[in-house]
Design brief:
The protein is 3% helix and 48% strand. The protein is mainly beta and 669 residues long. A hairpin with a 6-residue loop joins strand 36 and strand 37. 23% of the residues are buried. Residues 1-19 have low confidence and may be disordered.
Length: 669
């Protein structure tokens, strides 16, 4: 039997061996044209490259991202002559990935790059506050060749350099823009129409050297009007912030002048955001009520004139709320005020024994029998009165009952409960990993995984002492049949032509109809789960048994499946067989006697070729137990000693007949 820690060592060794044999080469034409990162385009660790370097070899099965260095662009990428798709990122431009797949092993990626030449220029003129708009240079003919150069617009005129691939300028509103359209976008005096009817988005195509693009929010000939905003507030702490939508900025109370005034442009939108610990009793603008959203604690107002806001607020008061929970195993659950790392843990105390049945106001009503659980009470803060529960390792909630007719029960390993849903009854069970199964895997390392879905249906777990990645060969797992309800296996990598084949106690498991590539099954104690990654289904391993005389033996296949005097066993793929013969029973494999080791167990592996096993009461010299110095005593059936301390050579010279050799009756033919 393999120990669990042995499985981890095997896995580590397998991963190490795989890493040594993995190699992918990337070549490019221009030194200094490449950026290589280990990770994704949004989160990678850059690889340090030499100034003259034009190739890079990947030796580990992980993801790498490749981007052109500043001043360069990717023209094409191929893998051993087959074109590879080039992606385009809104911020970084062209890129491509190489994942740690077996299909890439031994391959060479060739990258063609080109240096960007900036020999053209345009002028961008920004009028009346459009400097916070989004502007970017792209390629309108081939998006994959877009440099995606983001421009920092400033009020007034600025000169922008164009590369040979920059032929389009896109202009978009900031995501936090108040919603006003641009007054106009034009090129050399010619108006550019918006690409969208719903929000301002402009594409200035076919850019040419010397052109001027003008962007304006308002009519440049009309002067900007401003309004004065004054705030009269009795509880300054009730105001959290004021949002200036047009400029996408936040104004804190401490940023206001001492007289609580500010100057803003006419038509600008302001949002007032209030502290949830205050009640807003009155909110007026120039003596008219403001439409205030009490749920979000905010109000949005368009300022078209000088405005005085009058705000009256009172602090809320909160009273702690008592809640009750019922537990059948008191040390199995932790109750806290949040899921944060530094959450406060509620102390339960000794609890109250139930001397009579308790009926919960659930739908349908649930009854807690006297003596089966204890009642615990504690208080939670009155503000957002809620508590959180988490089942400790080694336990699970068979069911959780809430006094809430709309949601009477659920099967989670943890949960959040509001005071109005209490009391809570948790029916807790211990996880008893008393069942044993053997998992046999045949296929490439790091290609398939096996996890167990617990009874709550919320967790896919690896087994104790193991990772979820399957290790080639036989591996033992321990599990709780009442808790580990579904065993799930699937491919995670490898050759796309390979398929997954799963067998539970010799019976093939079909993939899920609604989730192709995923196989779910249930296991019982002493089960054999065999998993293969291959091009075709594994062949049956045929083992035939013949019984000669009064013989008996214990026969176990796949390390765990006991067989009761079988005539034939058809295993799946490679099948391990262990035979423990009783005294006086000898083993022939394909008509040849075999020697049983000192531990009394003869083991072999059956594969594609049939194996014939004969269990016989007739021994050969090879099957006779010898003395420590390989000597034999031969006695006739009448009791006469014929040889004493004889060697094997002398045994071979005996005539045909029946003898007693070292206490065992033997027929020499």
């Amino acid at each position: 039997m393999k120990k669990l820690y042995t499985i981890l060592l095997l896995l580590a060794a397998a991963i190490s061996a795989a890493a040594q044999n993995y190699s992918v080469t990337v070549k490019w034409d221009n030194p200094g044209a490449m950026i290589i990162g280990c990770g994704t385009i949004s989160n990678f660790v850059a690889v340090e490259l030499a100034p003259d370097q034009t190739s890079f070899t990947i030796t580990e099965k992980t993801e790498y991202v490749f981007l052109p260095a500043k001043g360069y662009i990717f023209i094409s990428v191929d893998k051993d002559g087959t074109a590879v798709n080039i992606g385009n990122n809104a911020e970084r431009g062209s890129f491509f990935y190489i994942g740690g797949y077996d299909s890439n092993n031994g391959k060479t990626f060739n990258v063609s790059t080109e240096k960007l030449v900036y020999d053209k220029h345009i002028t961008i003129e920004v009028l009346n506050g459009a400097d916070y708009m989004l502007a970017k240079l792209e390629n309108g003919n081939d998006a994959k060749k877009s440099t995606n150069t983001v421009l920092s617009l400033v009020n007034g005129k600025q000169q922008i350099a164009l590369s040979q691939y920059d032929n389009m300028l896109t202009i978009n509103r900031n995501a936090n823009f108040s919603g006003k359209s641009f007054y106009s976008v034009s090129r050399d005096g010619q108006t550019i129409e918006s690409d969208s009817k719903f929000y301002p988005y402009y594409s200035v195509k076919n850019l040419e050297d010397g052109q001027t693009v003008t962007i304006a929010v308002r009519d440049p000939s009309v002067a900007v009007e401003t309004c004065t905003v004054t705030i009269d507030i009795n509880e300054p702490e009730c105001l959290v912030s004021i949002r200036d939508w047009q400029h996408s900025s936040w104004i804190k109370p401490e940023d206001l002048t001492k007289d609580w005034k500010l100057e803003i442009e006419k038509g600008q939108a302001l949002s007032f955001n209030f502290n949830e610990d205050y009640n807003i009793e009155s909110f007026m603008a120039n003596n008219a009520p403001v439409d205030f959203d009490s749920e979000s604690g905010s109000a949005k107002v368009i300022i078209n004139e000088d405005t005085k806001f009058s705000i009256t607020a009172t602090a809320k008061t909160y009273t702690d709320v008592p809640v009750a929970v019922y537990l059948n195993i008191e040390d199995a659950v932790v109750f806290t005020d949040s899921y944060d790392e530094n959450a406060t843990v509620y102390e339960l105390g000794q609890g109250e024994e139930l001397t009579e049945d308790v009926v919960l106001a659930t739908k349908p009503a649930q009854v807690i029998k006297a003596g089966t659980a204890k009642k615990y009470t504690f208080t939670v803060p009155g503000k957002n009165p809620k508590f959180f529960w988490t089942v400790k390792d080694g336990f699970y909630a068979e069911k959780a009952y809430l006094c809430n007719p709309d949601d009477p029960s659920y099967y989670f390993a943890n949960g959040a409960v509001t005071a109005t849903e209490a009391p809570l009854w948790l029916d807790i069970r211990r996880i008893e990993n008393t069942a044993r199964a053997v998992v046999y895997y045949e296929g490439p390392e790091n290609t398939a995984v096996l996890t167990a879905t617990d009874k709550t249906g919320t967790h896919n777990q690896a087994f104790e002492g193991q990772t979820s990645s399957l290790v080639p060969g036989y591996n033992e797992i321990m599990f709780d049949p009442d808790y580990h309800s579904i065993f799930k296996t699937r491919k995670i990598d490898g050759d796309s032509d390979d398929m997954l084949f799963v067998y539970n106690n010799g019976k093939r498991v079909n993939e899920l109809s609604d989730t192709p590539g995923v196989f779910n099954t249930t296991l019982t104690d002493s089960a054999s789960l065999k998993i293969f990654v291959a091009r075709r289904a594994p062949a049956a391993a045929e083992i035939n048994f013949i019984y000669d005389g009064n013989v008996s033996a214990e026969i176990i296949t796949d390390k765990i499946c006991r067989q009761s005097r079988p005539d034939q066993i058809k295993g799946i793929g490679s099948t391990h067989v262990a035979i423990t013969p009783a005294n006086g029973t000898y083993i022939k494999i394909d008509n040849e006697y075999v020697t049983v080791p000192e531990n009394g167990v003869f083991e072999f592996t059956a594969g594609k070729e049939p194996v014939n096993v004969i269990l016989t009461a007739t021994a050969s010299v090879a099957g006779i137990p010898a003395t420590p110095d390989d000597r034999y005593t031969v006695v006739s059936l009448s009791g006469m000693v014929l040889l004493k301390n004889a060697t094997a050579d002398k045994l071979a010279k005996l005539a045909r007949g029946i003898y007693i050799i070292n206490g065992t009756k033997v027929i020499l033919k």
